[in-house]
Amino acid sequence: ICMSKTNPNKLYAIPVDSTLNHEGVYVTTNNGDSFTKISSNLNKNTYGGFGWYFGKLEVHPKNDSVLFVCGVDLSKTTNGGKNFDLSGPKWNTYEFHADKHDIQFLSDSSFLIATDGGLYKTTDNVNNFKHFDNLPLTQFYRVAYNPFASSEYFGGAQDNGTTGGNNDIKQFWPRIFGGDGFQPIFDSNTADKV
Predict the structure, then answer these.
(1) Phi (first) and psi of residue 112, to 5 degrees
(2) What is the rounded CA–CA span in Å between residue 84 and residue 1?
(3) Cα dihedral across residues 124, 47, 98, 141: positive or negative
(4) How far is CA 116 from its chain centroid?
(5) Most exposed among 90, 137, 139, 170, judged by the fewest C-beta atoms under 10 Å?
(6) Distance between CA atoms of 117 and 139, rounded to whole angstroms?
């Protein structure tokens, strides 16, 4: 749910159904006393079946007909929720990391987008954007050291593969595998391989 920045009586809501996808786009103009379902083209699979994980909405600070929906990709409407289009490249181009979670406006056309792959900034409504690299905030599921080379450490990261290295390259451990990384284990026959 998200409130208009220009009219506190107007709120948008996108509830999740039993399939963990969105159930529809709703709006209220009477401070939540009643909601109207909008006839919308928002892709049913916007949340990719992970409605418990996504769901952040953000209304443009100056125009409450402009709404962004964070999901696997970023969706945007300019007509109050009737028609949505992708905002920015699709996740599988690897130009704009999958799984958008938050938007914070800095100005009318400049905002930050938090994703599973880090932070992005746009100054022109996601026509162009900058990715902030090398932020020390990876969410590791599991970590391990190589028992055959104890100075080497590896971690399986949420949506950012398996990464590892040693203290000499601690500012940038290379990614070994993509997707979700989990428990790194080592084969004694190939001790240099995760």
Answers:
(1) -100, 145
(2) 17
(3) positive
(4) 5
(5) 137
(6) 10
| Residue 8 to residue 157: CA distance in whole angstroms | 39
Is the distance from CB of 103 to CB of 111 less than 8 angstroms?
yes
Residue with tokens 């159930």: 23
- Whether the pLDDT of residue 145 is over 70: the answer is yes
| % residues pLDDT > 90 (the chain) | 58
User: Which amino acid appears at position 43 of this protein?
Assistant: N
pLDDT higher than threshold 70 for residue 191: no
**DSSP type of residue 49:** T
The residue ranking higher by pLDDT, 20 or 175, is: 20
* Mean pLDDT value of segment 140-157: 89
Mean pLDDT of 53-68: 94
CB of 104 closer than 8 Å to CB of 110: no
CB 132 within 8 A of CB 120: yes
Give the integer Cα–Cα distance in Å for 20 and 177: 28
Return d(Cα 28, Cα 7) in angstroms, integer.
11
